[in-house]
Amino acid sequence: MKRGQRRSLLRDEGGLTLAEMLVAMTLGVVVMGGVLILLIGAMRSQPKIEKQNTNTQIARFVLERLTRELRNGIVVDKATASSISFQTYLRHSTCGGSTMAASTVSATRCEVTYACSGTSCTRTEAAPGVYTGTATTIFSGLNNSTSVFTYKPSSTLPTYVEITLRVPDPSGTGSLTVSDGASLRNATLGK
What we know:
Blueprint: H1 3-12, H2 18-71, E1 73-79, E2 83-90, E3 108-117, E4 120-126, E5 135-140, E6 149-152, E7 160-168, E8 175-183
Antiparallel strand pairs: 1-2, 2-3, 3-4, 4-5, 6-7, 7-8
């Protein structure tokens, strides 16, 4: 082989120099470090997001139950910003009982009271006109225990009830608000 051919063969060999390899490795470490920082940040925020989601779902469940019972309500007997007592029909054998009535039996007219004080809401079931009984906690962890219910046109003769539940934001920056409202569609049955 001639000298000229040997030099052209050496020039045709591909490869990276040591400097190029060091630059490529440094850039790879920087990119991987950025990806790792994003991954760690996402993993740290995940519990807060899950807690926020859980709080919101529970509040939505309570709100749905309350509005369903209000829509089936007959008359609102007592109305304040932190509690509401109304008569409605329930599928229980007795008011406050846990035994479900048979589908062939008429629903029982009962007094249902929702009261929110401190950081929790309770539900009480009793005979019509009775506002005491065994209270069951249905939700805890509220931020707005004093102003949950709003009545339109007024609290003395409401036709529409708005419910607003504020649950703490796990990030500590205020609260999450879930709200809905209901009209008493069976109000004519109370007359």
